[in-house]
Each structure stands twice: as structure tokens, then as C-alpha cells.
Model the fold of this input.
Amino acid sequence: MPYIIVSSPMDPANLPNTFRQWITFIEFHADKNEPAKCENMEMMMDRLGAERCPRQDTSPFCAYKIDKPPYFVLDRLETEGYKVVGTASTTVNYLIWTLHKQA
Done:
């Protein structure tokens, strides 16, 4: 599970009132056949202070959210050994970063 997707709105001031703060989403593929890797990822999310987003148990993705700006999350993931390998934006003004860690 060496890839992580980080996404965040470009400008939280343009969001509805209930979301007028920074919120960053972190998503990774959770391979149920490798529980040790999932546990390591969960411990890393705990160190970040991210909380799990509700998802269906059958989903292969684990999603977390944190009320910090994306630079905070990207800096912390860099200290964990992850590097940004791609960026993108969407039509709804979200920025997306793909991070990878060598195994």
C-alpha cells in the first residue's frame, strides 16, 4: 500500500458555512490480505491526528479527514517517507496530490 491520495479545497472560504475551515482528506487502498500494512497506516493517521471517515466496510479504500491545511499533511507524510509523485485539480476547485513511499 505505498500510494496515498491527499485532497483539499483550494479556498475554504468558498465552501458552505459548515465547512469554512481547512479540511484535508487522506485516502489509501486497504488490502484486507495485509492487515499489518493497514495497521501501520492507521497508526500513522493517529499520529497525524486524522479521524476516519465513515465508509462501507466492503470498500477497498480507507478515508481519513483532518482539519488542517494540506501543507501540514504533506509535510508530515514526507517525514514518514512519502514523496509527492503527482498533482491534479478538479472542476470543483479541489487539489489532489498522489504520494508514494518506496517499499
